[in-house]
Amino acid sequence: MAWLVLFVAGLFEIGWAVGLKYTEGFTRLWPTVWTAASMLISLWLLGLALRSLPLGTAYAVWTGIGTTGTALLGIVLFSEPAEAMRLVCIGLIVAGIIGLKLVTPQ
After folding, report:
1. What is the pLDDT of residues 36-49, one digit of tens each?
2. Per-domain residue ranges for the chain?
3. Per the confidence metrics, is the pTM higher than 0.85?
4. Cβ-contact 3, 52 below 8 angstroms
5. Predicted local distance difference test score (pLDDT) of residue 105
6. What CA–CA distance (Å, rounded) separates 27 from 69?
7. Cα 47 from Cα 41, distance rounded (Å)
8. Chain centroid to CA 10: how far?
9. How far is CA 26 from CA 31, 36, 49, 105, in A?
10. Sign of the C-alpha dihedral, residues 32, 70, 10, 67?
11. 24-57 in b/e burial notation, b at 16+ Cβ within 10 A?
C-alpha cells in the first residue's frame, strides 16, 4: 500500500511542477490555488508513505516520478525538445525507480 501512496504522491508532484508554469509567477489565482493544493497533497502522501518505506528510497522514487512526468509533460504540453539523449536519460530515471522498487523490501 505504501508504494501506491508514494506513486500517487509522485503524480501530485507532477501536478504542482507543471502547475507552476500555469501560475505565471503566482499571478493567476486558480492555477496558483491548484498548484498549492497539489504541493500539500503530494507532501502529505509522501509523509504517509514514509511510515513504512525507507527515507532515501521513498524520496528518490518520489522525485523520480515527478522528474519523469514533468519532463514528459514539458515535451507534450510546452513543445520542449524530445531529443534522443533526453529520452534515454528519462528512461534511465525510470529504470532507477524500478530498480529501487525491486530491491526495497515492503
Report:
1. 999 999 999 999 99
2. 2-103
3. yes
4. no
5. 80
6. 24
7. 10
8. 4
9. 8, 10, 29, 40
10. negative
11. eeeeeeebbebbeebbebbeebbebbbeebeeeb
